[in-house]
Amino acid sequence: MDFSWFRDLGNLAQTGNFSQAAELGNISQPAFSRRIKAIESWVGVMLVDRSKHPAMLTSAGVQMLEAGQQALARLESERNQIREAQSLPDKYIVTFGAQHSISWRFYPVWLQAFENAFGPIISRLRADDLPNCLKDLKDGEVDFVIAYASEYAPTVDVTPTLQSVIIGHDTLLPVCRRRSDGLPLFDLSNQSSLEIPYLRFGANAPISQHIEPLLAANNLNSRLRVVYENSMAGALRIRAREGLGVAWLPRSLITPDLEAGLLTPAGDLAWEIKLEIRLHRLRENANQLTREIWAFLSVREPVPLVEKL
Q: What is the pLDDT of residues 170-190, one digit of tens each?
């Protein structure tokens, strides 16, 4: 697998034309076509619908492009941080662990706001499933873990040594594709007996702990029919945009889709779940810099609010 394949896929998604995409990548069209076929062979499915003009990515192509772009951004960020750390060996690198859906949009906005107020720090992010983030925290491989909490689930049990502070807010919003008349394709507020296709977080995904109690309390499980399950919010987001069902997703993640009309709320405010975004630390694993960061955040209002993203 060659990471440059994802750049090729991105160029094709941008232009819809193999020749123009090849020019953007400074390679010949035959070579470009071979590289697109190579990534399709590696994934095992067709990623490009060549029957359409302009050419378009399939849903699998969109999913792989998004995953590849995230991976490339992560690698480039790590490379830059390593280079910066090597040039400033006396500077400590603060490492954050975060759930995937937090890392996508909330984290970079929050980090910028934090550095504007606190001052610049050298930092890196590990985006992973929450259990892995907490294991890294206990093993001393990350300094802080960022995770959701709600009235339905604390997600992380706070102890005298495992502490937390609120750094932001978000909302889990039931969304689906919008009809041509502007109404939701599936409406939770409609009390009809028709089943609603449900795009569900996997049972082992910590974010599901905030959603399932709401469904149980409102007897929604009898109306929802699971048609797709994934622990990644990004994968559910793609299926929702395709019109395959309703998914509860963080507003911070789907704000661009809501603004573009690709997604719309599938119910009223009663179906929304308010989230706190909390920063966690192990007190015994602190150093001077991380203690200063903790003291600063402990007295600061959570910023930015997700509605202002």
A: 999 999 999 999 899 999 887
Residues with Cβ within 8 Å of 237's Cβ and at least 6 positions away in sequence, in order, are 247, 249, 253, 254, 257, 263
Q: Residue 119, by phi and psi: left (phi above 0), alpha (psi -120 to 50) or beta?
A: left
Per-residue model confidence as pLDDT tens digits over 18-70: 999 999 888 899 999 999 999 999 989 999 999 888 988 999 999 988 888 88
Does residue 61 contact residue 11 with C-beta atoms inside 8 Å?
no
Can you tell me whether residue 160 is helix, strand or coil?
A: coil
Instruction: Give me the helices (H) in 88-180, please.
Output: 100-104, 106-118, 130-138
Peptide bond into 120 cis (omega under 30): no
Q: Is 34 exposed, middle or buried (0-12, 13-18, 19+ CB in 10 A)?
A: exposed
Task: Measure CA of the first residue to CA of the last residue in the chain; give whole Å.
Answer: 35
- Three-state DSSP at 145 gives strand
Structural domains of the chain, with CATH: 4-67 (1.10.10.10)
Q: Which tokens belong to 71?
A: 């991976």
